[in-house]
Design a protein that fits this description.
Layout: H1 2-27, E1 36-38, E2 46-48, E3 52-57, E4 63-69, H2 81-89, E5 93-94, E6 103-108, E7 111-118, E8 121-127
Length: 141
């Protein structure tokens, strides 16, 4: 009878450990970079479908932006190659002379989008055009 209780306890603990491994595995999955949707601030600019919108500022006088969380991104690695490819496929061209640090500037027709990579997150910013001036970087006033 006592052995039966020990077996049940061991099975229960094994089940709990298995569930912990499953939960931990699901929480740290890497992005697939296979499916993209339009950004909340510029529908023609792609964002990974797996990204979760965490903050949005719309109708600001100088810019509109949306902040997304996406595990696996590293600020030190900049824009992942698969994401860069999707951006180009959607018709955007990087303006290397306007890009700096972790912020990349893209143009398409008369549109401008700034993409900034953070650890496990990124920001898509659409500066408002004032004459011909474009806001440079997130740090600029």
């Amino acid at each position: 009878m006592r052995q039966r209780g020990i077996r049940h306890s061991l099975c229960f603990m094994g089940g709990v450990l298995l569930m912990l491994f499953i939960i931990a595995g699901c929480g740290t999955s890497e992005p697939t970079w296979s499916t993209f949707v339009g950004s909340a601030v510029e529908k023609s600019f792609p964002v990974p479908k797996e990204a979760k919108r965490t903050e949005t500022a719309m109708n600001n006088s100088k810019m509109d932006y949306v902040h997304y969380s996406l595990s696996g991104l590293k600020e030190s690695n900049s824009v992942p190659e698969a994401y860069e490819k999707a951006i180009k496929e959607w018709g955007w061209t990087e303006e290397k002379e306007e890009s700096a640090g972790t912020t990349r500037v893209y143009h398409k027709d008369r549109l401008v989008v700034q993409l900034t990579i953070h650890d496990n997150a990124f920001t898509v910013l659409v500066p408002k055009m004032e004459g011909k001036a474009v806001i440079q970087g997130l740090e600029s006033p």
